[in-house]
Amino acid sequence: MPVHPDPHFVTADWLSRHLDDPSVAIVDGSWHMPATARSGWAEYLAGHIPRAVFFDVDAIADTASSLPHMLPSPEAFAATMGALGISDKQTIVIYDSYGLRSAARVWWTFRVMGARDVVILDGGLPAWTSGHLPLEEGEPASIEPKTFNPSFNPSLVRDFEDVKAALGSPIQILDARSAGRFQGQEAEPRAGLRSGHMPGAINLPFGDVIDGERMKSASDLRAVFASRGIDTGKPIITSCGSGVTAAILALALDVVGAPDVAVYDGSWTEWGGRSDASVVTD
Asked: CATH assignment of 155-271, given 3.40.250.10, 1.10.287.950, 3.40.1500.10, 3.40.50.300?
């Protein structure tokens, strides 16, 4: 694996120097909320970083679940990654079209599945294009299949029962949704969900940990967490609308070295849609 100085991010310059390195896999993880009427796949076809393959967040998932983009089985994930030409032994570089949104979810998914070296392109596709670096159009001409050996890490993911059991315990639950949704003052974008939050949850909108579509510095992140009374040395579960921006908080916590952080995969789409889930607005 090539050396990169930051364990979480690589720069556009670094990636441009490793475009032809077979030990580097490049992944476009762009995803958009349904209401935006944008298609990550269509935008990938219109222009992507050379050699990048497209990671369809909604399709590389447990499609039998009624919840959006839940984690697939390790076996299904491994088969799909192998078909995309991605090995668990490569350095996997992920980007998205915003800069830092769904790339964090893809980063987390690879980590759950045991990828050894997975990083995010700092600034995403905007950073790449602002440097006047090349793009490709259309589907890849050919992909050489590889073997991805999964090693599922259950410590990085939590389900409904885990979160329910965490309520009232020392485990901190961080909610990445907007303050209006958290406080029950704004409707949820997905129909049929109550707005509000889990009892005892702490609101930390994902935008508070990024600056200009890049992750804030470790020192700034520590200040943000301290300002919300978050103890990064204690167990934390992150949540959001559907498990995408919760991964941005998980990434931010990993940057500052928090030792025990998991993402609630079903997030508010599951919690807010269940009659047996406690919802408060105070």
From this structure: 3.40.250.10
pLDDT tens-digit readout, 190-199:
988 999 999 9
Give the whole-angstrom CA distance, residue 198 versus residue 239.
10
Shortest CA distance to 94 belongs to which of 132, 51, 52? 52
User: What are the residue boundaries of the structural domains of the chain, listed by start?
Assistant: 9-152, 155-271
Kindly report the CATH number that applies to the domain delimited by 9-152: 3.40.250.10
Active-site residue list: 240
Q: CB atoms < 10 A from the CB of 127, how many?
A: 20
Give the distance, in angstroms, between the CA of residue 213 and the centroid of all CA atoms in the same chain: 14
State pTM to two decimals: 0.98
- Other Cβ atoms within 10 Å of 167 Cβ, number: 14
Distance CA 258, CA 249 (A): 11
